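Throughout our pipeline, every protein is held as a single compact record rather than as scattered files. Nothing more is needed to write down the fold, since each code stands for a local backbone conformation. For reference, a complete record is included directly beneath this paragraph.
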Amino acid sequence: MQQGRLSFIFLLVLLCQCGVQAVDLTTCEGDTARLNCGLTSEVIACESDTANLQCDQGHIKVLSANYGRTNSATCSSGKPANQISNIQCTQDSSLSVLTSRCDGKQNCYISASNSVFGDPCVGTYKYLDVSYICKPPSVIIQTQTSCEGSTFSINCYKQLIKVLSANYGRTNNDTCSTGKPANQISNVQCTQSSTLNVLTTQCDGKPACSISTSNTVFGDPCVGTYKYLKVSYICHPYNFIKVSAANYGRTNRITCSTGRPADQLSNVQCLQSSTLSVLTTQCDGKQDCSIPANSTVFGNPCVGTYKYLDVSYTCGPASLT
């Protein structure tokens, strides 16, 4: 239960677009702490639990969702093998359910259950996996289209790009159709599923991005069709990590205690004074930072005690210099 709670807290690290947001993150010994000032948040709720999408500032915009199972590890504790073996369980309507109920709200609670989403795989213990952003009123979702053979460019100037959706192909007869014969624009079911991954890899986190609208970059999802690239994105402020407090050790008997014997939890005066300097050196000024919570990195302040890394940090905007 403790581990699930900590994972949930971590996954709800939300970025404040117009100021500084404080984040507290606790990571058990042997796990990896990830400090993140990125835009996208993820929530995973096990079947029969309730998912909470929350935006302290701005409004929810759901990017992707699935109620089902795509791996054997998530929400597997105490479940028999036959209930977690089907990892091809997806429910296509999950996204539409989430967007209709949650988009535009600051808070959204939704039950991860068959009664809400239907049952895509009877007998499998499922979970709801949701990715979303908190979109402030001042952030405008922009859409650009680039015809095949041209160059697609985004410029956010003194802000950063976050691509929300993208497709290289053709979904209507009108876009990029001037002078093209009917047989090159008639296929309007042409989509390339890898387009978003290409764009996020090339453009996310940069102030500007240019990419060739071509089969060379995206592959050819429909040979003989004249295609175009359509991208939706936002420009958001620079946000960087600033660690304010940190300790690798143990100051209570509850945190990261599941399955641990009493003698590994009894020392609650376990402090490592160098923890803060390690974190500030490795993480300050970055947008993302991953660091193992182990004695190799921080030293061992209390041999025999099962420790955890407790970090407080802020995500704050800064302008380009």
